[in-house]
Write a structure and sequence with these properties.
Its EC number is 2.1.1.266. This protein has 273 residues and is of the alpha/beta class. It has helices spanning 5-8, 12-29, 51-55, 57-60, 62-67, 73-84, 97-104, 118-127, 141-150, 168-182, 197-210, 245-260; strands at residues 35-38, 45-47, 93-95, 110-115, 134-138, 156-159, 187-194, 215-221, 233-239, 266-272. The strands form 2 sheets. Strands 5-4-1-6-7-9-8-10 form an 8-stranded mixed beta sheet, sandwiched between helices. Strands 2-3 form a two-stranded antiparallel sheet.
């Protein structure tokens, strides 16, 4: 599966990922300054009048988010960020994780995002110009995130690969395990598409076998998993989750499935192991 950020920006999976990342960051900030490390940062900010028009995924995701009534608090927090980037209304611009996190940094916090594709890395650096504490760097995010995590205490790490490579599930699990072996106070959040349970179960087994901390899995399934060529659902897997993460994930995934899903959509939050 090739998950190009610009093509899928603002879809239902972005809403799940970004709403939970915002909550994780806020929770971590309550315990002191934090460094957020992002393995696959992308361009940072997306113009939905570009690639996303062809996929129409933003129409079924963020566009519906912004017109939905009775949004729960953690969904409302993401909607407020989208609205702030579109002061004239509408949803032309959507924040990737770098801009979303940069806007939420406190005075002693830091964001460090990595991007392997040089043209995209240039866009990332430009998108972060207004936030001196946020930096986009070129490099293999799996390798560089581990180096960066070893230089700080208690980081919040986001692993969000594009799934262009067949080993992304393996490298995601191995990178998370390596970070947590070094620092058991770190929290690692891993986004994955949900296409078939065999692939995902193998990923979870790797994390369990590493024995580096509790594993919380948050699923949002918009359609039955009967077509492995389509992204019918997504997950956020949080290793070493903070207190309250289960309830936060249930609120986010529950709203996404109920509001954006087809008949039979469901959400589930569970602990592995």
């Amino acid at each position: 599966m090739n998950y190009r950020h610009s093509f899928h920006a603002g879809n239902f999976a972005d809403l799940v990922k970004h709403a939970l990342v915002l909550w994780l960051l806020k929770e971590r900030q309550e315990r002191g300054p934090v460094t957020v490390i992002d393995t696959h940062a992308g361009a940072g900010l997306y113009d939905l009048s570009g690639d996303a028009v062809r996929s129409k995924e933003a129409e079924a995701g963020v566009a519906r988010l912004m017109t939905a009534a009775n949004r729960p608090p953690l969904i409302e927090a993401l909607a407020a960020e989208v609205a702030a980037l579109n002061p004239e209304g509408g949803v032309r611009f959507y924040p990737g994780s770098p801009v979303l996190i940069a806007r939420a940094l406190l005075s002693d916090d830091r964001y460090l995002g990595f991007e392997f594709n040089p043209p995209v890395q240039a866009m990332l650096s430009e998108a972060l110009t207004d936030w001196p504490a946020a930096e986009g760097r070129a490099g293999d995010g799996y390798v560089e995130a581990l180096k960066a995590a070893r230089a700080v205490k208690g980081p919040l790490v986001l692993i969000d690969p594009p799934f262009e490579r067949p080993d992304d599930y393996v490298r995601s699990a191995e990178t998370a395990a390596a970070i947590l072996r070094h620092d058991r106070t770190a929290t690692v959040a891993i986004w994955t598409p949900l296409k078939d349970m065999e692939t995902f179960d193998g990923f979870i087994r790797r994390l369990e076998e590493a024995r580096v901390g509790r594993v919380l899995v948050a699923e949002a399934r918009l359609r039955p998993l009967n077509n492995p060529m389509k992204m019918n659902g997504c997950t956020m897997t949080v290793v070493n989750p903070p207190s309250g993460a289960e309830a936060a994930a249930a609120e986010i995934c529950g709203w996404t499935a109920a509001t954006l899903g087809d008949a039979g959509a469901r959400a589930e939050v569970w602990r592995a192991g």
